[in-house]
Amino acid sequence: MLFIAMLPMLVRTAAGQTDTAKVVGTVLDTTGLPLPGAQVQLGSTSGVLLSAISGSDGRVSFTLPSWGLYTAQVKATGFAVLTRRLDLNNSTRIVLLRLESMASVSADVIVSTDVGEISLYSPDPSQKVMVREELLDANPGRPGAPVSIPGMPIETASGGIKAPQYFVPGVAGDHGEPIAQYIAVGNYLASNNLSANAHGNGYADPNVYVSAALGSVGTDGGAFNVLEGNHALNLAATYSLRPQVRRFITLTGDYRDIDLSAGFSPSDPEKKEWIALEANYGNGLTRTLEHRQQYKWNAMRVFDPGNHEITLLSIGYYGHSHEGNLIPVGYGLQLNDTIDPRQQDQTHTGILAANDVWKVDTKDELSSSGYFRTYNLALFSNFGEGLIRQSEFRTVEGAEIRESHRFTPWLEAMGGLDYNEDDIHRDNLDHYLSGNPQVFGSYLKVLANNITIREVSPFVAVHGDLGTHLHFYAGLRHAQIELDNTDMLKPAQSFDQWKGFENPKATLTWTPGSGPVRWLPSASFSIGQAFFTQDPRISVATNSPAGSAILASPFERSHSEQLVLEKEFNRNDVRVTLGRTTTTATLAKIDPDNGLADDEGPGTLKYLTASVRHQFSFGMVQAIFSKADARDDDTGLPTPEAPRTIFDVLSTLDRLPLGLHGRAEYEYVGHKLLDVGNPDHPQQYEAIPVGETRIALVRPFMEGRLQLGLDGMIARGYTGQTTETFAPGWEVGNPPPVCAPGVDGVSNNFDCGTVERAVGIRMVSWVGGSISWRFNSGR
C-alpha cells in the first residue's frame, strides 16, 4: 500500500540509549486524541510519588529515581480514573495512557476543551466530544442514527433502514455532501462518507454501529483541520468505539420492533479486545409495515507492544426493509404512510481498518493507517413519477502516514500523506414502467455509470504558543483529486479529470489567564477552506453538453470563518459561536427522484449558535440555540430546505426517586423554506416546524449488572420535508401513474411531474423498554 512505500522516507532514527531514568507518557481520551489537563500520578512500592499535568498535546514526563515497578493513575474531568501497573525500564520509557470510559452517569455530557486548548490533532475550538453514556439513543431498537447529538437534528426522507442524516444550522445537506462522518481507528479518521452514492451526491450511513459499542461522538466545524478532507465543509462527526467492552446482553423492543445485542470480551481485564453483535427485526412506526431485518458486528483489538499502540477494527452490516418514503404532508393516514408499497431498501457493507501509533522517542511520533471497505445498495423508491431503482456496488480503500515532532515545549509540527479511493461499479438508475402497486413491470435504464474518485492529499500543520495567552495553529492540505466517469448509456458524457487545489487552515486563540483581565471570555478565530466532490453523473435532460462541461464545477469549494467565545463561572459554561461560509457555484442535488441538474449558484451561510451548560452534583442541563441565514448570492433568495432556527435542551438527572437515572431532550426545528417557486411551479412552500421530546429512564439492580430501561419519544408533524412533482393526473388516494414513454424513453419517462406538493414522513410518538445484563467478570 501507499503508506508502506512511503515508510522508509519518513521513519526517524530512535533516540540513543541513556542511563537517565526518564519516562515520557501521552494521555489519550476515549477517541484516541491527546487529552490536555489530565492529572497523572506515578507511584512506586517504595513510596515515591510523582505528579504532572498533561500539556496541550497530552504529554507528561517524569524523572524517576530508578527503574522498576510503578503504578500510574490518570484523572480527567468526565472520565473514569485509569490505573495501570507499569514495569518501567530503558526499553519501556515511552508510555501510552488511554482513558477507557466516563466517570459515571452524572459526569458532563460534553467533554470539550477550553477555547485556548487546541492541538495538532484537535485544532478546532468549537470541537465537542460527547461521551456515549450521556447521550440519548436516537432510535433505540430501531435503525438510523445511533445517538441524538444535541443541536444537530436528525431527519430522514424515508423510513426503514435508509440512512438518515444530521443537519446543522443553515445547511441543506439532505444527503450529507457538506457533512463529513469518520470512524476513529486509534488516531486515524476512516471516512464513512459514500461519495456519488446511487441516491445522489452521497451520504454517510450510521446504521453500521452496534449502539452499545460506541464510546463517544465528536463534532467540529469541519473546515479547520488538515486531517479532515472530502465533505468536511460545515460539520465533521467522528464516531469512536470503546477500547474495552464489558460482556453484556441487551433486549430492547416494543409491540412493533425487537432488538437483541450482545458483547463478548476476555476475562483478563488487561486485554483490549471485544466483539459486539446485534440483530434487529420489526415493522417500524408507520402504517406500512417494514418487515425489517438488520444484522451487524463491531469488533476491535488494541495491543501495545513496546512503544507501539496498534488498533484493529472490523465492522459488518446487512439490512433489508420495506419503507414508506415521502408522502404529501397531511395525508399520512389516508395513504397508509406510502404512495407505493413496492418501495424497499437493501444494503450490506464490510469494513477492515488498522492503525499503528509508534512513539519513536520523546519528541517524535509516527502513525501509519489503512482501511478497506465494500458497500452495496439496492433502493426502490417512488417520488411521484413512478417506481425507480437506485443501485451500486463499490469498494473503498484508504491509507495515511503522518509524523509529528516536538521542537520545543511551545512548538510542534506534523506532516503526512492521505490517500482515499472510491471505485463505484454499476452506479445505476432504472425506471419501472408499471403504475400497478402490485407489479414491478418492465424497466427502463436512465443512468448507468462506473465512477472512480481518487484523492491524494499531502498535508502539514504547526501548533505553538505565542507567550502565555496566545496560541496558534496553521495548516495546509493540498487536494489532488481525480474524477473518472464512464457513462455506459451516453459514452460522449464520459470524462476523466484531475484537479488540484489548496485548503489552508488557521486558528488563533486567546485566554485571559488569572490576571486582571480574567473576567473576559476566552476567544478564538479560525479560517479554513474545504471541498467535496460532486456526483459526476450528468443530467438526464436532453441536449446536455458533452463530458464534464455539464458540471458547473466538479468540486464544491468553500471558505469558512469562525469566531468562538467561551466563559466558565460557577459551574456554568457559556459558549457563543459565530460563523460564515461562502460556497462556489455548484450543481444542485442530482437526486434520481427528479433527475434534473441545476446550478444553485454561489451561496453564503451566516449563523450564530449559543450554548449554556450547568452542572449540578446530581446531573446537568444544557441549552443550545442556533439561528442561520443561507442564501443564493446571485438571486438573494433563501437556500431551500436549510434550517434557520434550531433549539435543543438536554438534561440528565441521577438522583430520581426509586433509584432511577433519567435523561430528557427537547429538540425544535423552526420554519424553513422548501421551494422558492419557479415559472413552472410559482407557489412557495414552507416546512411545518417540528418538535421532538425524547426521554430515557434506567433503574440499575445488583450493583449495575442488571438494568431495566424505559425509552420514548413524543413527536408530531413530518420529518424530511421537501417538495416533489407528481405525474399528471395524480390524486391523493390513487397510485401515481407512470409517465408516458417518450421518443428516447428517457426525459418523458423520468421527469414529467407537473403537480407539485410538499412531502415528508409522518412522525409517530412511541414508548419502548429494554433489559440489559452485564456479566460480573470481564470488562
TrEMBL record:
GO cellular component terms, A-Z: cell outer membrane
Protein's UniProt keywords contain NAD: no
Localisation: Cell outer membrane
Record keyword Membrane present: yes
UniProt xrefs under InterPro entries: Beta-barrel_TonB_sf, CarboxyPept-like_regulatory
Residues in the signal sequence: none
Chief site of localization: membrane
A Pfam family: CarboxypepD_reg
UniProt cross-references to Gene3D superfamilies, sorted A to Z: Carboxypeptidase-like, regulatory domain, TonB-dependent receptor, beta-barrel domain
Key words of the record: Cell outer membrane, Membrane
Protein name: TonB-dependent receptor-like beta-barrel domain-containing protein
